[in-house]
Amino acid sequence: MIKAGVVGGTGYTGVELLRLLAQHPQVELAAITSRGEAGTLVSDMFPSLRRRVTLRFSEPSDAPLDGCDVVFFATPNGVAMHQAPPLLAAGVRVIDLAADFRLKDTGEWAKWYGQPHAAPEWLAKAVYGLPELNRLAIVGAQLVANPGCYPTAVQLGLAPLVESGLVDLEHLIADAKSGVSGAGRKAETSSLFSEAADNFKAYGVAGHRHLPEIRQGLSRLAPRPVELTFVPHLTPLIRGIHATLYARLVAEGDIQALFEKRYADEPFVDVLPPGAHPETRSVRASNVCRLAVHRPQGADTVVVLSVIDNLVKGAAGQAVQNMNIMFGLPETEGLWHLPVLP
Ligand SMILES: NC(=O)C1=CN([C@@H]2O[C@H](COP(=O)(O)OP(=O)(O)OC[C@H]3O[C@@H](n4cnc5c(N)ncnc54)[C@H](OP(=O)(O)O)[C@@H]3O)[C@@H](O)[C@H]2O)C=CC1
Ligand SMILES: CC(=O)N[C@@H](CCC(=O)OP(=O)(O)O)C(=O)O
Predict the structure, then answer these.
(1) Where does the Semialdehyde dehydrogenase NAD-binding domain lie (predicted)?
(2) Active site residues
(3) Do 166 and 296 sit in the same domain of this protein?
(4) Of the residues 125, 160, 189, the one at which a domain ends
């Protein structure tokens, strides 16, 4: 059995990790931290976990994390880069759900996250954990940087086009909408029911911190750096991301066949038949990304529709998928459940 610890067990990605890990046949939950709830039974805070998770929350400094085989950080940006290095030095494998180890350039990290990087030596060793684009590197990794939710939906939707050389790499567009759980469980005015319900708005148009992450990931697939306009929106869903992606063709090709071939062996990427419109509810609570490819009026703009559950394929599910790869387990272990509908 793999002994797993979770730092940040009271947040949305933390409780989603607990849901997935508690049902994983090869995992034993060994430690779950909270700074404010140490001593509280996890199932008292989250009755959804009653009779399945019997642990109490521990203070991060008291939790037996160095006795774990793997520790997940489900903490705000800037926490894991301070707390993970001693665990890594002790041989523990770490999967960070935050952004601390995603951007390879420390200057870029400081610019977008407003603080200097505290562990550049581990940054160099970290592997970006988007299995469909980077599987082989994850196999041997000790430290995996789990991608952001928007970057997962956008990169999976644009990767086949960028790899193909059929599209203009300088004018990609990602128009993405997220449910409110994407902002986390912490109290914030913009997440209040009266602010977010019955409302729809763009934010971060001048520059969102997921832009450099998407650019870095897609540029690795291309002969030169890609340029992208990325506009996130907040939509009154609890879970879900819907990304509408635009690319201009510079050469002819069968785009539907390109996507079907690219993802034919991927258990968690579903390319829908021509003309389909994927819905966020078709992936709710599952680790699946559903894609549909369109070419309106047969013109030279390709439109890709990409949906994921931000808490699963966009965070906790992808983290478990990465753990499975790191530990040589079947990739679908503990993740092969169907979405919840309606
Ligand atoms: N929500 C989403 O859809 C996605 C989130 N992410 C990323 O995952 C991470 C977690 O997100 P989310 O679960 O939404 O966030 P939440 O705000 O819901 O939870 C954050 C958790 O971190 C703990 N925490 C906060 N500060 C510290 C600290 N200094 N030391 C130890 N623990 C700390 C909190 O617990 P306590 O205060 O009890 O200690 C809480 O459990 C973030 O980096 C986020 O950007 C990534 C992809 C998608
Ligand atoms: C709706 C909403 O607020 N979403 C978050 C993205 C959450 C996420 O994935 O952020 P990290 O890169 O920090 O992991 C945002 O736009 O800030």
Answers:
(1) 3-141
(2) 149
(3) yes
(4) 125
Regarding whether 159 and 107 lie in a shared domain, the answer is: no
Q: Rounded to whole angstroms, how far apart are CA atoms 222 and 218? A: 7
149 Cα–ligand 1 center, Å: 13
Give 23-67 pLDDT, tens digit per residue. 999 999 999 999 999 999 999 999 999 999 999 999 999 999 999
CA distances from 232 to 103, 131, 132, 153, 212 (A): 19, 23, 23, 12, 14
Q: Do 175 and 113 have their domain in common?
A: no
Any ligand 1 atom below 6 A from CB of 35 = yes
Which of 20, 33, 75, 186 for a ligand 1 pocket mutation test, highest count of atoms within 8 Å of Cβ? Answer: 75
Cβ atoms within 10 Å of 278's Cβ, excluding its own: 20
Q: Hey, which of 149, 234, 312 would you mutate to test ligand 2's pocket, going by the most ligand atoms within 8 Å of its Cβ?
A: 149
**Shared domain check, 206 and 279:** yes
Domain limits for position 38 = 2-125
**179-222, pLDDT tens digit by residue?**
999 999 999 999 999 999 999 999 999 999 999 999 999 999 99
> What's the gap in Å between 338 CA and the centre of ligand 2?
25
Give 298 Cα–ligand 2 centroid separation in angstroms: 35
What is the pLDDT at residue 200? 98
**Residue 311 corresponds to which tokens in the numbers above?**
């808490």
ipTM score assigned to the predicted complex: 0.97
**Domain annotation covers residue 98:** yes
pLDDT in tens, 145-169: 999 999 999 999 999 999 999 999 9
